[in-house]
Write a structure and sequence with these properties.
Elements (H helix, E strand, L loop, with lengths): L2 H20 L25 E4 L1 H4 L5 H13 L2 H4 L3 E3 L5 E4 L6 E3 L18 H9 L3 E7 L33 H11 L4 E5 L5 H9 L21 H18 L6 E4 L7 H4 L6 E3 L8 H12 L10 E3 L15 H13 L4 E3 L8 H7 L2 H7 L8 E4 L4 E7 L6 E7 L5 E6 L12 E4 L12 E6 L4 E7 L7 E3 L7 E5 L37 E2 L8 E3 L2 E3 L2 E5 L2 E6 L6 E8 L10 E7 L2 E5 L10 E6 L5 E8 L8 E10 L1
Parallel strand pairs: 1-2, 1-10, 2-5, 5-6, 6-7, 7-8, 8-9
Antiparallel strand pairs: 3-4, 11-12, 12-13, 13-17, 14-16, 15-17, 18-30, 19-24, 20-23, 21-22, 23-30, 24-29, 25-28, 25-30, 26-27, 26-29
The structure holds alpha-D-galactopyranose.
Family: Belongs to the glycosyl hydrolase 27 family.
EC number: 3.2.1.22
Keywords: Disulfide bond, Glycosidase, Hydrolase, Signal
Length: 639
């Protein structure tokens, strides 16, 4: 098909998909008795492995990939869980026009030359990886073109070649064909799908760099959520998820959505993908690490087994995280580990020094990251200088605590039993997960000196403050925020705004850009405040907007639910009351009266029996446009 006409057809397809999506569903607050986040794919724990991008950009080849694979095995990192070997941008030669089949650049991947002059396959390479006990990953784009085709300083010899149509190597218009090829014929197990093909900025850059490309309708406008086509973006990624399920009905795949936190993906990605990028790219620069980390770190309620927040890949070994900056490198790794980020190494593993292998190889931190509970660490203390993150481990009373000094000066930090949700009177034992030393027991509090940019990480044993159950904010891996009540997506102002490395200071400033502000929060209100009900502050609870519904996986583990509920003292809407409702497997088991701003917290308790799914709904009394902030204080599942 002529490529212009083809562009039109894909625009129509997108429009149809949008109108299909737009049909109002059933009442989003009605109980479903189901877990509605993604359960497809192979991501019960965060994926681990290696990706070529941070190590090589587009300058990849077979020797580098296989050399890495061998190093993962010989260093023992593969045994520790680093099993995905993922090829990023740069592998493609062209899309064959006779049948649309993608062709591999065989001068850099010689084993891909399998047949006649036009025939290429990655099967020999994935066979080798599989024989080594590893898994294989590939990269594509949701539009027609890739990020590397948007130009910049990348090696032109790694760009796709040929006519405009031959250089359309992205998935748009070819979703099923490409996914079948990559997963059935070529044997890949993991795909990262980028979004430069549908991004206004990338398309503009591509046109500037010499043209010769068809444009795709802009689904992402980085600086404007209002001009971003969220339903179409979502529908496009959904079509990939469906194609993956057709190609691998047994669910043996990982789907990584790489839409850089744009298009409100932080809210819906968990319904479609296994790995959801929450920000633009990481670079080996401290401020940039803070930027991408922050985009995921306040969002534990949006990740759980099956779908993980992805602040981008590890940059350990480079720049401010290289062998001369081991404090920074260890911080970077500790932080990724405790927030359950995918652990994808981005280094030339053929030459990895021992000091770096020891970081990736910290078995205690890997085990924390891979803990089957899937509870992303929650902020127990927050400031721009120091943060304390606490992660619950499944099936034990132990927790992981990370004390992170973000700044340039040393700080004194008091770690409190209450940060850990441990009882004040009982002894607490900390084991340092870097030095492996066990510290003397203490009760109630202990002080630490934390060096600039250092992260202390401990496994903590103590007596849980709530002995007969678990607070919901301790177990975010059991929670799916099915509907967070956000009416108008807003950019999150709490993400560290580093200088944009691609623009420098050539603008009025770095702006807040990732929608998700006002989303559900563990131990904080939706807008980052303390949970407050008529002057009473709560360190524990869920802050969420009204007109919201959360699904909690109980799976028969607990028998009762309890909370104190009400409208937050810092609610934007102080006029409209709301009712709090609790359902067990779809059955209403408790509800509050309509609570208003300024009311005392109401006690809500319910018998949930052996329910599989508990649903927590807040329904605003009137149809007001501005949501109020609701508090599920001390919300807990009890035995
Ligand atoms: C985007 C992605 C990166 C990498 C490059 C490849 O920038 O966010 O992770 O895949 O494209 O060009």
């Amino acid at each position: 098909m002529h490529s212009r006409a083809y562009g039109l057809v894909s625009a129509i397809a997108v429009a149809l998909a949008v109108s299909a999506q737009a049909a109002p569903a059933v009442d989003p607050l009605a109980p479903t008795a189901k877990w509605t986040a993604i359960t497809r794919g192979d991501a019960a724990v965060p994926p681990m492995g290696w990706n070529s991008w941070n190590a090589f950009l587009t300058a990849i080849d077979e020797e580098k990939v296989m050399g890495t694979a061998e190093a993962l095995v010989s260093t023992g990192l593969a045994r520790l869980g680093y099993r995905y070997v993922n090829i990023d941008d740069g592998w493609w030669h062209k899309r064959r026009q006779s049948d649309g089949r993608m062709q591999i650049r065989t001068n850099i991947f010689p084993s891909a030359k399998v047949g006649g002059p036009q025939e290429t396959s990655f099967r020999p390479l994935t066979d080798k990886l599989h024989a080594m006990g590893l898994k294989a990953g590939i990269y594509s784009d949701i539009g027609h073109n890739s990020c590397s085709q948007s130009g910049g300083s990348l090696n032109p010899q790694y760009l796709p070649e040929g006519s405009v149509a031959e250089r359309e190597i992205g998935l748009a218009g070819n979703v099923d064909k490409d996914i079948q090829l990559y997963f059935k014929d070529w044997g890949f197990d993991y795909i990262k799908v980028d979004a430069c093909g549908v991004d206004e900025q990338a398309q503009r850059r591509r046109a500037r760099n010499g043209g010769g490309y068809n444009t795709h309708p802009n689904l992402i406008v980085d600086e404007s959520l209002n001009r971003t086509n969220v339903p179409a973006l979502r529908a496009a990624y959904q079509s990939v998820s469906d194609a993956l399920q057709r190609a691998r009905p047994n669910g043996d795949y990982v789907f990584s959505i790489c839409a850089w936190g744009a298009g409100n993906v932080r809210a819906w990605g968990k319904e479609i993908g296994n790995v959801v990028r929450t920000s633009s790219d990481i670079l080996p620069v401290w401020g940039r690490m803070l930027h991408v980390f922050d985009s995921a770190a306040t969002r534990p309620l949006y990740a759980h087994p099956g779908a993980w927040n992805d602040p981008d890949m590890l940059f350990i070994g480079h720049g401010e995280f290289d062998v001369n900056h081991l404090v920074e490198a260890k911080s970077h790794f500790s932080l990724w580990a405790v927030i359950n980020a995918p652990l994808l190494i981005g280094y030339d593993m053929r030459n990895a020094p021992k000091s770096l292998i020891d970081i990736w190889g910290n078995a205690d931190l890997v085990a924390a990251n891979q803990d089957k509970g899937g509870h992303q660490a929650v902020l127990a203390y927050d400031s721009n200088d120091v943060q304390i993150f606490v992660k619950t481990l499944a099936g034990t009373d132990r927790k992981i605590v990370a004390i992170f000094n973000r700044g340039v000066g040393p700080v004194d930090v008091l770690l409190m039993a209450k940060h850990l949700k441990f009882a004040d009177g009982a002894p607490i034992v900390l084991r340092d997960l870097w030095s492996k030393a066990t510290l003397d027991p203490f009760a109630k509090e202990r002080s630490f000196k934390v060096a600039p940019r250092e992260t202390l990480v401990f496994e903590a044993s103590g007596t849980r403050a709530l002995p007969d159950g678990q607070y919901l904010s301790e177990i975010p891996g059991r929670i799916n925020v099915a509907h967070d009540g956000v009416v108008t997506p807003q950019a999150d102002p709490t993400v560290h705004r580093s200088i944009n490395p691609w623009e420098g200071t050539n603008s009025g400033g770095t702006r807040a850009m990732y929608a998700g502000w006002g989303g559900a929060m563990a131990d904080q209100s939706p807008y980052g405040g303390t949970l407050l009900l008529r002057g009473e502050a709560f360190m524990t609870g869920i802050g969420i907007l009204t007109n919201s519904r959360m699904e909690v996986r109980n799976d028969g583990a607990f028998r009762r639910f309890s909370a104190r509920v009400g409208i937050d003292d810092n609610s934007l809407n102080t006029r409209d009351g709301a009712r709090f409702l609790v359902y067990a497997d779809g059955r209403l088991v408790a509800q509050s009266r309509a609570l208003k701003f300024g009311d005392a917290p109401a006690v809500l308790t319910a018998v949930i029996g052996a329910a599989k799914i508990v649903e927590l709904v807040v329904r605003q009394a009137s149809g007001a446009q501005i949501p109020a902030s609701a508090v599920w204080a001390d919300a807990a599942l009890l035995r």
